[in-house]
Amino acid sequence: MRSNQLSYWGIAQKFIQKTGPNQLYASSANFESMTTKSQSRPRALITGASVGIGMELARVFARNRYDLVLVSRRADALEAVAGRLEGEFGISAATFAADLGDAAAPGSILDFCANEKFTIDMLVNNAGVGLGGEFGESDINRQLNIINVNISALTHLTGLFLPQMMLRRSGRILNVASTAAFQPGPLMAVYYASKAYVLSFSEALAEELRNTGVTVTALCPGPTKTEFAATAEIESTRLFNSVVTDAAGVAEFGYQATMGGKRVAIPGMMNKIVAQSNRFTPRFLATKVVRMLQENR
Questions:
Q1: 167-220 pLDDT tens trace
Q2: What's the pLDDT score for residue 240?
Q3: Mean pLDDT confidence for 91-102
């Protein structure tokens, strides 16, 4: 687990090299000014930040001078991402290893931020899991974990950090949904349903918050080049052997949409067309098309 103290030590080393040890104590006021600058930057909390879209979102926020709180199950990978971003962009990146499938994880994340005195200006609920195959033949525990991570943890984290934003009348929430949110998904039934929840929840919340200074954006990417297809066991499907989007482009698009206060953001013209076409396509037909795409080649 990484704290902002690491970044302050890095600042201290640079300061000593520049001023020399004899001037260090005489120049303590300057050092205080440098650390205050670090603390004055906005801070984004990003879940699922060790790989894929989450990692790319962390890069985009760091490039735009946000300090970060990065959350993922993979502590080592998270530390590596934080170190790279601190070195490249000169921001502070704290890490917290947590499995969002555990109901206690969101509360632990809030406690960590409170103990570190972090103000969260941007909440990015990116972490998500999926599983391909027939629901009746699948591991029910893995299916329930999809609900725990994609729905319960996202809702819990939003409920924990939103009141602070409302009190400040300032803040942004980015929930990563999917184009899967726009129709049922045979052979990935629970995942598609979970993303429909994320989209519906985000749109409803955005309307509730329209006069509060807090915005909510649902990012709905299509198939994207990440580890998701492998972990969800859908690498051989027609869907993931068609047009697949670059994760960095999705992250940049999501950032710009969030900063612009957009409620629903769908990257890519083809994804927009597919999402909108479901408004006019009979539901049974859309479901059959999705099943065909979710089947192996």
A1: 999 999 999 999 999 999 999 999 999 999 999 999 999 999 999 999 999 999
A2: 64
A3: 98
Please give the positions annotated as active site: 191
CA distance 239 to 187: 12
Helix (H) or strand (E) holding 219: strand 214-219
Residue 33 has pLDDT above 60, yes or no: no
Q: Where are the alpha helices (DSSP H) in 41-123?
A: 52-63, 75-89, 105-115
Triad 7, 79, 125: Cα angle to 5°: 100
235-252 pLDDT, tens digit per residue, is 667 766 676 788 999 999
Residue with tokens 């052979």: 187
226 vs 22: which has the higher pLDDT: 226
Q: Which residue has the higher pLDDT, 282 or 146?
A: 146
The pLDDT value recorded for residue 40 is 82
Nearest to 237 by CA among 180, 297, 189, 292: 297
Domain at 42-66+99-294: CATH code: 3.40.50.720
Domain residue spans of the chain: 42-66+99-294
